Write a sequence for this structure.
């Protein structure tokens, strides 16, 4: 295999991993029961910090991956900065914003194409 083909295959592997891992990130929530509200409310689980840090470290390990997913790394780091604050993890509105951002990143990754 040529070097460029190997890079493309690696890109596809990482893309698929990120799509899967975005589901893992979205599941890092804890249900909050609020009196007199029927719909489910969620706050951010402390595990989200750990999962985000693991993901950021993984994406920064390799220069090729780092280059191809730079925008996503920045966005994941922004989310991590938000959830590093315990008050933010307890806030239901912020939690919804965090999970919306994770979903937006997932959508970006879905349409991302390998470019030479």
């Amino acid at each position: 295999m040529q070097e460029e083909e190997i890079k493309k295959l690696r890109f596809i592997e990482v893309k698929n991993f990120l799509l899967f891992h975005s589901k893992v990130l979205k599941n890092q929530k804890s249900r909050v029961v609020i009196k007199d509200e029927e719909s489910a409310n969620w706050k951010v689980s402390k595990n989200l910090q750990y999962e985000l840090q693991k993901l950021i470290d993984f994406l920064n390990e390799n220069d090729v991956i780092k280059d191809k997913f730079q925008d996503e790394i920045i966005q994941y780091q922004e989310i991590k900065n938000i959830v590093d604050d315990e008050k933010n993890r307890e806030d239901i509105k912020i939690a919804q914003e965090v999970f919306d951002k994770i979903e937006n990143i997932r959508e970006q990754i879905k349409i991302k194409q390998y470019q030479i």
Observations:
- The mean pLDDT is 90.
